[in-house]
# Entry
Amino acid sequence: MHNFNLNFIPRRKGVYIVGGSVRDALRGHPPKDHDIAVIGDARSVAEEVAANTGSRVVEIGKGKKCIYRVPAGDGACDVSAAKAQTLEEDLRLRDFTVNAMAFDVYHQTLIDPLNGRADLDAGRVRMVCPEAFESDPLRLLRAFRISALLKFAISPETLEEIRKMAPAIATVAGERIREEWIKLLGAPDSFTCLLQMADTGILEALFPELMPLKNCPANAHHAFNAFDHVLAVYRHMEAMLHPDAPPLCDRCGNSELLNGPDGAAMIKHAALLHDIGKPAVCTTDHQGQPHFYGHETTGGAIADAISCRLCFSSAEKHYTSFIIRHHLRPLLLYIAMSEGRRKNRARARFFIRTRPYSTDLLLLFAADMMGKNPDRDISGALAFVRDTIATCRDTFQPRADAAPLVTGHDLVSRFGLKPSPLIAETLDKLEVQRVAGNIESRKEALAFAENFIKGKNLS
# Structure
């Protein structure tokens, strides 16, 4: 019934497995990690667990909030003193009923004072009590994370309480929000939760920068306002990354095309924010059509501020900013190729300017095109995406990985160049030609460099 490995947990009175460990075990997923609450001496229980597993005890925190962590295999066992004098009182201090169950290790029985088992069987996320959100407003976001990961529905009364308490999420430390947000985005089916977050006000409290998009008008290419558009782009991005989605590449699933941190989570985050700079740069021409020149640069700066607020890692911040600042490049390449302008060199230039995130940007472009107008035929754009992904992976990447044919030192010694921007510019032009397949030997590379340098000197 319990799916627990009890060999290393001391069978004492007052020792209970609690929280998500119990929830997952009851769902038929034996937990790797165990949370143990102790009525009594938690430290001695942790030491016995460590002795039984040949591990050690690591203290996290101090005083009543101290957790004794015991690494065990590919998981861990967190032992702590119960937060109340009795276990039932402890469970009533928790967030949701599905997390407010315990397994009595001594008697090997389930303790469920709040009917969490019934909610688990019904696929329902229900708050323990309204005060649960007051004691820790992070739980407002956690409700959606649990809903997305478990594919559970949030109960109506819980959603209503979230709506009342939504502004409180802004008082939570950024690093705690980031952890829940990334886990939520990592769920393969999170879009419904995102809509509920928008409806209850949580999305606005987390990202107030998104709200001006609601008043940002659609131009001739869009059927929706900017806010509804980014939600549609998020939905299409998530659908493309789903394990069951048709692949855009013959040799791998779409999620395997991503090169950023945190897998699908960060590209979905970038998709949600990709047009966030539009309201700040919106102008209207003499025909009444809105334009958003430079919104990618402004959006990148806004995204940087959000990344700092949520304590994103340097890699996460860089990735988000890069994707937003460059998200128009695939569109510009698509237009250029549709007009028949130097297709291979244009694609090589795109690859060089955007690596290692070329395929990430192409996925966002596909989702962006899908999210503009449901009545628009985008078969040509999707064919472009498939072809460009294949070219980047199968042709450009192997060429780029090869050693350069000419170095900066070669330019200095061969042509007498002094250190200057001309060296970098020449090497850049050479790389585009090499990756495009127009230059294949050192002799050809030097000849191209000589002609290019002469042209620059004449101008």
Remarks:
- The chain has a mean pLDDT of 92.
- The longest strand covers residues 75-81.
- The CA atoms of residues 405 and 442 lie 5 Å apart.
- The first helix runs from residue 20 to 26.
